Amino acid sequence: MNLPNILTIARIFFAPLLVAALVQESIVLRFQGLVITNEWLALGIFLSAAATDMLDGYLARRWGQVTTIGTLLDPIADKLLISAALIALVQVRAVPAWMVILIVGREFAISGLRSIAAAEGYTIRASDLGKTKMVAQVGAISVALLSTRHPVLQSGAYWMMWLVVMFAILSAVGYFRKFWRKVDVRIKKRRRQELLRMERRRKLAALRETRAAARPDASASGDAARVRGAM
Predict the structure, then answer these.
(1) Contact call for residues 180 and 114 (beta carbons, < 8 A)
(2) Would the pTM of this model clear 0.85, i.e. be above it?
(3) How far does Cα 218 stand from its chain's mean position?
């Protein structure tokens, strides 16, 4: 278990901590005279987890420690963190539920497309628009977390979430276009090859049946000739 994978797994465990810190409104921590309320604690947890998202990928590439488990867990950890934060914000009425449904639904849809593409041997990489959407999500969620106790930020958080929704829709369209252009063409080509193989097998089977049907007649003619020769 290398350090990048440890950071990825840590991000998964950050998700329930974030929800607990945000939903429990009575949390107040004091450290050397500094009062830390639940929204600041939730923000600290969220930003720490978001930082591991950038750090684990960088370290894995820098140290040559890109592994299969890391490649699989990284997008799962990202989606768990973002989904947990958004759902918790709906619970405290800081973000409209329909926005969260749209964003989270988009994440699961893109994950499904990537799984199908991977099964076909094609990797759908993150687009620049998708990366911009991730940055916008971190910013919008951070402002929304603070808006739970500071109402002056609610308007800004709302419009930032609109920006996230726009990026989510546009990036999803881009991913679907990649899917249909690459994977769907490959699936159709493979299906045509399968149909051609089935057609060849059918023709071979029909040819064998024809030859098998012709053999008894040839054997009968040969027997008759031998009988006449004996006579």
Answers:
(1) no
(2) no
(3) 64
Nearest-angstrom CA–CA distance, 135 and 42: 18
Contact 164, 103 (CB under 8 A): yes
CA dihedral sign, ordered 70, 73, 77, 83: positive
Residue 73: pLDDT band (50, 70, 90) is confident
Angle formed by the axes of helices 68-91 and 128-147, nearest 10°: 40
Query: What DSSP element (H or E) covers 195?
Result: helix 185-230
Domain residue spans in the chain? 3-188
What is the pLDDT at residue 229?
A: 55
Extract long-range pairs of 89-93: CB within 8 Å, 24+ residues apart: 89/22, 89/141, 89/144, 89/145, 89/148, 91/22, 91/23, 92/22, 92/23, 92/25, 92/148
pLDDT tens, residue by residue, 139-168: 999 999 989 888 899 999 999 999 999 998
- Type of residue numbered 135: V
64: enclosing H helix or E strand = none
DSSP code at position 35: E
pLDDT, tens digit, for every residue of 206-220? 888 887 777 655 555
CATH class in words for 3-188: mainly alpha
Which is nearest to 3 in space by CA: 53, 54, 60? 60
